[in-house]
Task: structure prediction
Amino acid sequence: MKKPVVLKAEGLTKTFGQGETKVCAVRGIDIELSKGEITLIMGPSGSGKTTFVSMLGTLLRPTSGSIVVDGKEITELPESKMPEIRAKNIGFIFQSFNLLDALTVEENIVFPARVMPGGVKKAKDRADVLIDRFSLSHRRKALPGYLSGGEKQRVAIARALINRPSIVLADEPTGNLDSRSGQEVLMALYDLSRDENCAVLVVSHDPRVEEMVDRIMWLEDGKLADRKETYHEWAVDPVCKMRVDTLTTDHKVTLDNGMTYYFCSIRCQQRFISEKKGDDTQ
Amino acid sequence: MIFWILKTAWRQKLSLLASMAGVTSALILVIALDAIFLGESNKIVNYPKHMQPDIWVMQKGVKNMHMATTFLSEWVEDEVQAVAGVKRATPILYINSMMAVKGRELFSYIVGLTREAKRAGPWSVSAGKSMPDRGEVLVPQTLEKLFGLELGDAVNIAEKTFTVAGFTHDTFSMANTVVFIQKSDLEDILKTGGFISYLLVDIEAGEKVDVVTERIRKEVRKVSVLSHQEFINNDFKMAMMMGVELVSFMSMIGTALASLIIAFTGYTLVARNRKEIAIAKSMGFRNSDIYLAIIIQTMLVVVISLTASFIFCVIAIPLIETAAPQISMQLSAEMVGRIASVAIISGVLASLIPAYLTVNVEPVNAMRV
Result:
């Protein structure tokens, strides 16, 4: 059964400058995002990925083309109507987290709810659920300056979800994270697409993201193209607990009892082996 | 948004405190200038205020005392005294002139008293005589503190030397000093006789001021007759007019300074937090939400600074007056209201620059790393 489309863009084009200095960042892109689906946009630097996501998120007006969000054509709407669409329909996750430094974890998460009817009071229960879900209960009152990169991005994801948007746009969400934190964030994005039934669009260079998305699109010179889906079989690295694709990883160990373990890196594999040897010696 | 702005401002405490200190200092300057102006203006009218006759009679066309010159023939005193309802008419001869005290020149009200005119003399004497004899002068006690003047010392008025015979209270101001000499001495200075300047008229019990005033106007020709209240109002108005331009100019500088600091506070808040404002916009906050928050923050700075500056002045003014007795300062409810209104309006106007900056922050800036 085809999932309902929540965002549809047709002929989306964005040019900057005029005359000889005119640059076409995005050229006539068509895209549909459906509920419960994760779409990955990849492409080289300067290919127009951020411009494209900014237009889908109503942060930037397209030069031409149309965008329909939850059945509503928004391209021709006046600027004064845009804040409402951003608040209700779209959740943003940024590469640099973009948490507000003066606010605690909890205050950051409920911050977008301040523009919604009912405000923070109404969002309190939802915030509690998200704080629990993203394992932030012990950091509830912490300021962003005291959080790790992974925690910051989990706060940013919770914040993006507070108003129950139908679309989540994530721009390089693992760009500033170490591999373990990056893996946690990717799993969170995967889960939210399924559990929250959101359309998730991820812009990333991170090859790990490819493994968990439903659709990969390649953006180059402002044009978009589909890429074939890839089949995965996931396992958990017993050392770092990261998710590992058993079909593609080069790091695996099969024990005498026939059990096979998969690792994200040679480092984890070596550590596993040395720990096993220690256990056997004892 | 207000919550965020206030928390952000609180987080940047040092710059917030620096802004508040700057605005407070500028407002203290404005309040201090106004307080000096009001204090001095009140001091200028101290003599007529303390005399409190029911009616003032003076040369036609004259309506006050400060910087005024008035001459009436002595016989006017008899004419006024003869009007029904007049209990007593006390004459004084008066000029504005410079008094030299130990090499310093002071602008002074020189009040010439007749021997019988004790009613027009000093209202509070701290040392020496309460009525001067020939060649004697009664001067403000402040001169004792300022110049080490003592009883028996000499001062010069219009090149005539007088001996200090008494010190009076509450008769000094930076703009004019009230000194008392004999009327005959003042006539010598003026090289004339048979004239008076003002008549201080007290009316009989049961009589009405306006009725007696009208009678004098009808019965005595070529004089100006004013009730005490009218006279005081005119004098105060004149005193205010004399310094109002200078003080207004200084107040404008102070207010402009305060506005600049307020604008700078708002500007730095927006400039420093452009990214966060873009993030807020990307989440659905409107320019109006952000601008309202900026205005509220600005108003908070203004109100706290205003309160701090008034509290400072209330504490500091008595200390300043004790340390520097030549300075008179006074606060009034009207002054508080006026300065508060000007500060709040300046605050709102000063918020226009940050508002302009806020509108120009594009939400797409949130995407930039």
In short: The interface with chain B takes residues 50, 53-54, 57, 59-60, 80, 83-88, 92, 94-96, 98, 100-103, 107, 111-112, 114-115, 171, 175 of chain A (CB under 8 Å). The radius of gyration of chain A is 21 Å.
